[in-house]
Write a structure and sequence with these properties.
Elements (H helix, E strand, L loop, with lengths): L2 H12 L4 E4 L4 E4 L8 H9 L4 H9 L9 E3 L10 E8 L2 E9 L7 H40 L5 H7 L9 E8 L6 H17 L6 E4 L4 E6 L5 H7 L4 E5 L9 H17 L6 E3 L5 H4 L10 H7 L5 H12 L4 H8 L3 H15 L6 H17 L18
Parallel strand pairs: 9-10
Antiparallel strand pairs: 1-2, 1-5, 3-4, 4-5, 6-8, 6-9, 7-8
Helix pairs in contact: 1-4, 4-5, 11-13, 11-14
Length: 390
């Protein structure tokens, strides 16, 4: 049966307004409120839940343990009038609470008995709705997981269930928590944040998945929502965004790109807190290269902390295409010192910077070392632009 219809019928029979909450004291349904109204009832309807102090007060009256109707006292300091609480249980399982304001006038015992007779119907309806919701959530979770694992027909399951529009492109974003680990508290934080974000992005038909060390958001269309993810997830995250794909069946491709983009953001601070796959430059090309495939001489330098200034000089030199003047200005380093460092790199790495293939191998190796976290250069000094005398 429809919960709202049952609630409205009961309110009409008793000629008294009522409100139904679920087991977590979130508002599920309520009748027309034409009787006494206190602040708690008003705020519950507006916010869809009561405040923590009100929940604590009512819990202390024994509502969660009750198996039959009970009267709860008022609390003027909380804006709470006296109430009658009818517990809603199915096979002994507490599923919710039926609330009546017990004032002007107080409820009679026959009226309470009528409400108690309806409680099993409400309980069965709540039970069916919770089961349907849980089943739908589980099916969606399984389908999204299958989609990202490239399982056949996972996209059709989501489309036929109305969870994603047919013939719409899909974009995948991945959020990696800044603080590592995979504890349950962090997972719950990400889950709550994604559920709230889905409500805000409802017209983009979002889907989500929380994995052991990252969260995934799929949206219909070609736009991603990194700013919204940063704001909603309740913990600092780094966001990678894959390229849009023309259909949901290809979401795994966008997902793999988003994973790599998130890895780049985590190891290359210059990108900031989020990055798109299409804008990763050389890091996009390195996505499939094993991180251990480094220039042999460079690998030796990476293992010694005292060589870090040489590596940083080499990277800037290669980034600026060997322009010694630009490198000296960027590093605030005298040209003689720059040439000395470059000669030391050649000696220690057993390389020749005049050889184009050697320069390319060294350059790519430095970027791969960044991706693996093996090489983290120091922040560059801030360049000061001069515009002439003041």
């Amino acid at each position: 049966m429809d919960l709202q219809r049952v609630v409205d019928d009961l309110a009409l029979r008793l000629e008294r307004p009522l409100l139904l909450e679920d087991g977590r004291q979130r508002v599920v349904a309520y009748s027309e409120q034409d009787g006494p109204m206190d602040d708690v009832r008003r705020h519950s309807i507006l916010r869809r839940h009561t405040t923590p102090d009100v929940r604590a007060f009512l819990r202390a009256t024994g509502i969660h343990e009750a198996t039959r109707p009970l009267r709860t006292p008022g609390a003027p300091e909380l804006g709470l009038l006296p109430r009658v609480c009818v517990p809603v249980r199915h096979d002994g399982l507490p599923l919710g609470f039926l609330w009546f304001i017990d004032a002007a006038p107080a409820m009679t015992e026959p009226e309470i008995a009528v409400a108690a007779e309806v409680a099993p119907t409400l309980a069965l309806t709540l039970f069916h709705e919770s089961m349907a919701s849980e089943l739908a959530s589980r099916r969606e979770l399984e389908a999204v997981t299958g989609l990202l694992l490239r399982e056949p027909d996972a996209d059709r399951t989501l489309i036929e269930a109305g969870a994603f529009p047919h013939n719409q492109p899909v974009t995948v974003a991945v959020a990696r928590p800044v603080r590592g680990g995979a504890d349950e508290t962090l997972r719950l934080t990400l889950e709550r944040g994604l559920l709230a974000l889905r409500r805000c992005l409802a017209r983009h038909h979002p889907l989500h998945l929380v994995r052991y060390d990252h969260a995934v958001l799929l949206t219909a269309g070609t736009r991603a929502f990194p700013e919204e993810m940063h704001a909603a997830l309740g913990t600092p995250v780094l966001v990678g965004i894959g390229s849009p794909r023309p259909s949901l069946s290809l979401a795994a491709e966008s997902y793999e790109e988003a994973l790599h983009a998130a890895e780049v953001v985590a190891n290359v601070p210059e990108f900031g807190p989020s990055a798109e796959w299409d804008r990763l430059g050389v890091y996009r090309m390195l996505s499939g290269v094993p991180h251990g495939n480094l220039h042999p001489g460079l690998a030796r330098l990476l293992d010694e902390a005292q060589h870090r200034p040489l590596l940083e000089t080499l990277e800037i030199y290669l980034d600026l295409a060997g322009n010694a003047q630009a490198v000296s200005r960027r590093l605030r380093l005298h040209r003689t010192s720059l040439y000395y460092r470059l000669r030391r790199v050649e000696e220690l790495a057993e390389t020749d910077l005049r050889d184009g293939e050697e320069r390319l191998s060294l350059h790519l190796s430095l970027k791969l070392a960044r991706l693996s976290g093996r090489y983290r250069p120091s922040p560059l000094p801030v360049e000061i632009e001069t515009t002439g005398p003041c």
